[in-house]
Amino acid sequence: MSLQELLQQIANGLVVGSVYGLIALGYTMVYGIVRLINFAQGGLYEVGAYLGVFFFTLMGKFGLQYPIPAVLITLVISMTLTGALAFVVERVAYRPLRNAPLLAPLVSSLAMFFLLISVVQVVTGAEPLTYPSVLSPAPLHLGPIVLSPTSLIIFFAAILLMVGMQQFVRRTKVGKAMRATAANREAAALMGINTTRIVSLTFVLGGAMGAAAGILYGVNYGTVTYDMGEFGGLVAFTAAVMGGIGNVPGALVGGLTVGVLSSFASTFLPNQWNEAIVFAILILILAIRPQGILGERVAERA
Amino acid sequence: MDYLSAARERLIRAQARVTVPPRVQTAGRYGFYLGALVFASAPYWLGGIYYPDIWTDMALWGTIGLGLNVVIGFAGLLDLGYMAFYAIGGYVFANAALYHGFSLWEAMPIGAVLSVVASAIIGFPTLRVRGDYLAIMTLGFGGIVYYAAQNMTSLTGGYNGLFGWKTQSILGHPFASPIDFYPLALGLTVVAALVTRALRGSRVGRAWSCIKDDEVAAGAAGIPIIRYKLYAYMVGAVWAGLAGAIFAVKQNIVSPETFTFNQSFFAVAVVIMGGMGSITGVILGGVLYVVIAEWMVTYTGTLSGVIFSSLLLLVVLLRPQGLIPFRPRPPRWLLRHYLEDPARGTAGVSQPDG
C-alpha cells in the first residue's frame, strides 16, 4: 500500500469513525449515569436516519433547495423528535426496572431496540430509502487525499457536536449535575439534584446524538436500510468500549479508532468480511482491555 | 430470594391457607400430564403435512429454549448469540453428510461436540467480564458466525447454503415426511427437559443458582465462578448443536438466514417469556413462539417483530418471572425436617434481609 492510499484510508476511516463516535456518545453517557447498556441506542440512530429522509423529502416538496439550511433544519427537527422518543424509551423500558436485577433492564432495552427497528421495517416496507443528494458531489483534493465536500462537512459536524457535548457536560451547571449523578447517585440526590430528571435528560441527549449520527450517515452514503441500526449500534458500542465506557471524550477517540481500523480491514480483506472484523475487534477489546483506551477500570457490579 | 427463606415462606403460606386436598393435587397433576400428552400427540390425529411440520418446529424451539435456559435461567448469563451453536450443529451435519457420507446419527454427536468446543473457546475469554459486556460479546460472536456462514463458501455454501444430501433413515425407516421428524425432535425435547431438570437440582445447578443470585457471595462461598459459568455455557451449547442438525434434516437445507441476530433474540424471548429456570415454562415459551410466528406469517406479514418485541417488553415489565415461573423448592427431606418442627424453620435460619 502506497503512502497516498494509506492516507486516503485513514481519511475515509476518520469520516466514518466520527459518525460512530456520535452514536457511541449516546451509549457512553447513558452508561456513565445508569450503568446500563442502552441497546435501544442503535434503534434511535436508525429512527433518526429515517426521520431525516422524511424531512429532507418534505422540504424538497416545499421547494427548500438551499442545502445547508435544509441539513440544519432536518438535523434540528429529527434530533428533537428522536430525543422525545428516547425520553419515552427511558420512561417505558428503563425507569420501572430501576431497582430490578441487571438482566431485566438489559432485556427490556433489547426488546425496545427490536421494537424500534421492527416499526421502521413495517412503516418503510423494508425497502432501502435514498437520501436526496443535498451537497455538490464534486470531489475536493486535499494534497494526496480525495474527499467529497459532504464527508468533510460530516466529519466537522460530528466533531463539533461531540466537542459541544463535552463542553456542555464539563462547563454548564446541568453538566455538573450529570457528572455528580454519574459519580454517586444517592449523594447527588441528597445534594438536591433531581436525579430522575438528569437520567431522562441523558437519554434524550443520547438519542439526539444518535439521530444526528443517523442523518450524517444517510447524507454520506446516500441510502439508509432498516437493518442499519443493528450493525451501527454494535460498531458504536465497540467504539464506546474502546474509548472507555462512561468517558465522553473517549467516545470520540474510540469512534475514530474503530473507523480507521475497519477502513484498513476493508482494504486487506474482501469487503464482506468488514462486519465480522468489527465483531472480532469488539470481542478482543472486551477480553483484553475492557476498560478501553482512555478509561479507568469500571467498578464491578454483581 | 434465597433458597432457605423461599422454602420457609412456602411453608408458612402452606400452613396459613386452606390446603388443597392431596387427591385434588394429584388429579391436577395427572390432568396436566394428560393435556400435555394430548397436545404432543396432536400431529398424529390431526394428520397431514402442515401440523407435523409445525409441531416439529415447536419441539425444536422447545429444545432451543431449554438449552438457553441453562445459560440464562440457571446461571443468569445473557447470551445474545445462542443461535450460533444451532448453526454449527446444522453446518456440521450438512458437511458430514454431503462430503463424508455420515448419517444423521453419526453427525449429531459431532455437531454437539463441536458446538461445545466452540462455546468453550468463545466462553473462556468472555465469561470473566460483567453481565452486560457478556451480552455484547455473545452478540458479536453470533455475528461472526453469521457472516462466516455467508462468506466461507467452501464450507457453508455461502448465501445459497448447503443441501442435497441423501434421505436419512433409522432402522430402515426413512425420514421423508414431517411426521417422521416429529418423534425425533420431540424425543430430543424430552431428553433435554429431563437432563436440564436433573442438572438444576444437582450440585452444579445449585452453584449456578448461587452465582445468579449473588456472584460475589458465591465466589466467597468457594464456588469457582468462571468455571461454573463456562459449564453453563457449554451445557447450553449441546442442545442447540443437536437441534440444529435435526432442523437441517427437516428443512433439507442449511442457510445463513435461519441463524440471524433476530433468531437469537427470539430464543432469548422464549426463555424470558416462558419463565427463566422453569422447564415447563420454557417449553411453553417455545410452543408460543412457533404459534405466534406461524400465525403472523399467515395473517400479519412483517408485523411479527413488532408484536414479538412488544410482548417481550410487556412480560419483562409486568410479569418478570415469566408465564410459568420457576419456584425453587427445597428437597423433600428438608421440607419434612421443617414440617415436623416448624420452630426449627425460624430458629435455624437467620432473618433474610428483604
Main attributes?
heterodimer; A: 302 residues; mainly alpha; two-stranded antiparallel ribbon; two-stranded antiparallel sheet; globular; B: 354 residues; 2% strand; disordered C terminus
Would you kindly provide a written description of the structure presented here, covering whatever features stand out?
The complex is a heterodimer of chains A (302) and B (354). With 302 residues, chain A is mostly helical. Chain A has a domain at 19-229. Helix content of chain A is 74%, strand content 3%. Chain A is built from eleven helices and four strands. Chain A has helices at 3-34, 40-61, 67-94, 103-124, 149-171, 173-183, 185-190, 195-221, 228-243, 248-268, 274-288, and strands at residues 129-130, 140-142, 145-147, 223-224. In chain A, α2 (40-61) crosses α9 (228-243) and α10 crosses α11. The model of chain A is unreliable at 297-302 (pLDDT under 50). In chain B, β2 and β3 form a beta hairpin. The termini of chain B are close together. Chain B has a domain at 48-259. Chain B has 17 helices and four strands. Chain B is mainly α. Chain B is globular and about 65 Å long. Mean pLDDT of chain B is 83; it is low at 347-354. The chains are: A mainly alpha (302), B mainly alpha (354).
